[in-house]
Amino acid sequence: MTVERDELTWELFGSASRQLARQVAEGGFEPDLILSIARGGLFVAGALGYALDVKNLHVMNVEFYTGVDQRLDLPVVLPPVPNAVDLAGAKVLVADDVADTGATLKLVRDFCAEQVAEVRCAVVYEKPWTTVSCEYVWRRTDRWINFPWSTLPPVVRREGQVLDA
Question: What percent of the chain has pLDDT over 90?
């Protein structure tokens, strides 16, 4: 039995990120900075940064997924952790590829909440069961998603780079 999947190509990602940027702009939100959730959110944040003319990009490394539909019990923030002083009083747009369980987005949103003026989330995909409803969503799906940046296996498998489940 083959599991149905959503297939995001690089070309479709280009369109999706522009549509997300339009949602943000048309909604009147003008972020001071974009906080990407690494690794999938790096692509989204970069594309949104260019489309929204926001040069101030930050990264928060969070490990949660360890394989296809395999994850740790809880998301883990990996160093370096963003300095709260750099976020103080800012309007922050959190960018990620997918809001699946919502655990990662909740962790990052909660991290920001007391430091920033406002925090909103933008994702390419949102699952119906997520615990975090994002303000900006390109597409909703209940399928597993093949992203162009993570579908193929690594060229090199490095010891100690991935947390075991």
Answer: 64
